[in-house]
């Protein structure tokens, strides 16, 4: 796959002296959904803002579909749609007018057919003559997406797209995003909702303190960093783990009522049959068992915590 | 050139004016008409002619200029301040538009609104006082150049202001006083000699004088000086706008 966004040595130091981005290198592949995760103030929005033209870079270059975002800003920006984090809308405009305005702003000739399709896809068609001030937060979020899609971008940035959106609407939006990807649109989303990244993303980038600390396929990331745990509920509580089981990564939990075995799910041999055999030989019986795989959130938290 | 974008901004701004017709057209027309009634008809009838023109007619160009300056500034400053304030400016900055196109859209719309307003007020004035326009071409030229220049100034103020208070500061504390002291209601010759000299440092004197000359052929300063002054302002404002966009001042960190 070729990269559709290519960021190299990108740095940003604000006038206040705050160093928001430090020599970032990042490539976004064409047609993928890329999730950018990071704690507050990590540099997510600064990175997106530079790529989209809202903030000047201090150093480095960004190519969007091969066009330099500074030198060839017209060509670069016409490829990009941006859905900002804040619900910023022209309160007194109608849905139809504000979406049509966006299309014009991006230099595209009026196309009522396209606007109609976008509004229908986002379930906004019935609201097309409503003023934005009368819409709910979730509907306004849809309008921002409609505005971003009005000029048929190849690359779509979603900055916290489902912040403050109810669960049902969030699922609807995920569907919309998947539909866009199916049509070849590359999607870059930042999110606080780890489950969103877990649900949607093909690849995940983690940014912390202005540095990209990891970029990985989601599945590989889950596999590489995903620790799995087997919890056995014991029939009789244990005070200590018997010495002959020291070869396994075991811990006691729930006041000795549970025995927790941590293993690498990626390994061919999980060690579970051997462990169960040894437990049986030691006369330790269990009444129930469950397994647990690390979520992306746990991986993310541990990654960020590891950094100084 | 992204003409679609210029048209989109222009149409958006004109639609805003249509939505707020009461505030953007009716209100300035009524308030300026009140000046005609009070100064022109009521007080003016007791004042002798000024340089061969009835006082009511004499003040019309100055009053239109007063309205042109304040409305251009407030229209244009609000049009760019509000997207900054509400955050919708993100779209403008992320669009494939040049700074020139942004200015063309916003300032063009603000100037259009003010010019239309000026013509409406001119027609309204004609109902109260006898008007004559000796140099219609120059009248229109001054009208357009002033609307354009002060819309640019408004755009600059809109970018500079980060609070609603600052947005009002320049129109209220600088432009309105300068216009009142700029010969809108009197001829500079009517002032004591020392004030005649001081008043020449007020740039609005040149605008009012040139505009009044296009109506009645009488002026406080030469027409060439008036034209030079408005072109100087225009150049200054263009320079500042260019600098704003070059540095991203207050819009692009």
How would you describe the overall organization of this protein?
The complex is a heterodimer of chains A (308) and B (253). Chain A has helices spanning 44-52, 73-78, 95-105, 112-121, 137-149, 167-182, 194-200, 218-225, 272-281, 296-306, and strands at residues 3-13, 19-29, 33-37, 59-64, 67-68, 80-83, 155-159, 186-190, 203-208, 211-217, 227-234, 250-253, 258-264, 286-293. The two termini of chain A are 34 Å apart. By secondary structure, chain A is of the alpha/beta class. Chain A has two domains: 3-223, Rossmann fold; 227-294, Alpha-Beta Plaits (2-Layer Sandwich), CATH 3.30.70. The mean pLDDT of chain A is 87. Chain A contains ten helices and 14 strands. Chain B has 253 residues and is mostly helical. Chain B has one domain (3-247). Chain B has helices at residues 3-19, 21-43, 55-86, 89-94, 99-128, 136-160, 164-180, 193-199, 203-216, 223-247. In chain B, helix 3 (55-86) runs antiparallel to helix 5, helix 3 crosses helix 9 (203-216) and helix 6 packs parallel to helix 10 (223-247). The longest helix of chain B is centred in the N-terminal third of the chain and has 32 residues, at 55-86. The chains are: A alpha/beta (308), B mainly alpha (253). The A-B interface holds A 14-15, 52-56, 73-78, 80, 82, 84, 86, 88-93, 97, 101-109, 147 and B 2, 4-5, 7-9, 11-12, 15-16, 19, 86-88, 90-98, 248, 252-253.
Biggest sheet descriptor of chain A: 6 strands, mixed
* Helix share bin of chain B: over 70%
Number of structural units classed as domains of chain A: 2
Number of strands of chain A: 14
At the third CATH level, what is the topology name of the largest domain in chain A? Rossmann fold
For the residues shown, what is the average pLDDT of chain B? 88
Number of strands of chain B: 0
Q: Percent of residues of chain A in helical segments?
A: 25-40%
Global morphology of chain B: globular
User: What is the strand content of chain A?
Assistant: 25-35%
* Count of DSSP H/I helices of chain B: 10
* Quaternary class: heterodimer
Strand order of the largest sheet of chain A: 6-7-8-3-9-10
Roughly how many Å apart are the termini of chain A? 34 Å
State the CATH architecture of the largest domain in chain A: 3-Layer(aba) Sandwich
- Average pLDDT of chain A works out at 87
Straight-line distance between termini of chain B: 25 Å
Class per helix and strand makeup of chain A: alpha/beta
Uncertain parts of chain B: none
* Most extensive protein-chain contact, per-chain counts: A-B, 34 and 26 residues
